[in-house]
Each structure stands twice: as structure tokens, then as C-alpha cells.
Design brief:
Elements (H helix, E strand, L loop, with lengths): L44 E3 L8 E7 L3 H10 L6 E8 L2 E6 L2 E5 L1 H6 E7 L1
Length: about 120
């Protein structure tokens, strides 16, 4: 008895063996988050991907699980730490933090929320 999935992109992906909808997530910027409306309590807070090259920010929150928090900590990205976006490359970006340059993909950069501090 073969059943069609109830949702057009639902079901198990035969190639990757996981739910199909996980591959179709959109980034924070694509969902419309920007510094204007990302956080109602602070209009200067938004995802790291909303910063342009050369802008500075202070990390205020990492929206993710324990694994993402540990990975960011291992890379030197801490809540309260200053970061400068040096390059935006495709979906990811390169940030400078504490004398180190770190390349981040869009997935991680969308979950790191910063408060714009300068230029």
C-alpha cells in the first residue's frame, strides 16, 4: 500500500535519508529579519548576516542548542564579544574577533545575533 506524502515536500528523502523539509529552511535574512525588526526590545539587534562588510557588532545571543554554543565558543565567538565583518562571500561571511579571522557559513551566522556598535 503506497501512500503519497500529505505535504508536497514532506516524507523521507531517498538520497539523504532524512526529512525533506529540513533542506528547504530559509535563512534569517530571507525570512525578513533585519536590524529594523529583528528584536522588538532593541532595534539595533539582528543576525550576523545583516551586517555589511566593515560593520562592527557585539554578540548578544546565540540562538541554537548546546552544540552550536560549544562550536562558537571553540571558534572564539562569545556572548559579549566584539566582531567585525571583514567579507561577505556568497552565503557565508568572514568575521574578525580578538585578532582572529573566522569564516562562518550562513547557517551559523543566522543564529548569532549581534547588536550593531559602530560604522
Amino acid at each position: 500500500m503506497d501512500r503519497e506524502p500529505s505535504h508536497p515536500i514532506g516524507g523521507i528523502d531517498p538520497v539523504f535519508g532524512r526529512q525533506r523539509h529540513r533542506r528547504f529552511r530559509r535563512s534569517a535574512c530571507a525570512r525578513g529579519y533585519a536590524f529594523d525588526d529583528a528584536s522588538p526590545e532593541s532595534p539595533t539587534t539582528g543576525p550576523l548576516t545583516a551586517l555589511a562588510a566593515g560593520q562592527r557588532g557585539r554578540i548578544v545571543e546565540i540562538r541554537g542548542g548546546r552544540r552550536l554554543a560549544r562550536r562558537c565558543l571553540a571558534l572564539g565567538l562569545r556572548v559579549g564579544g566584539e566582531v567585525v565583518v571583514t567579507q561577505t562571500r556568497g552565503g557565508g561571511l568572514v568575521v574578525a574577533s580578538g585578532g582572529n579571522r573566522i569564516a562562518l557559513g550562513r547557517g551559523i551566522a543566522d543564529r548569532v545575533f549581534v547588536e550593531r556598535t559602530g560604522r
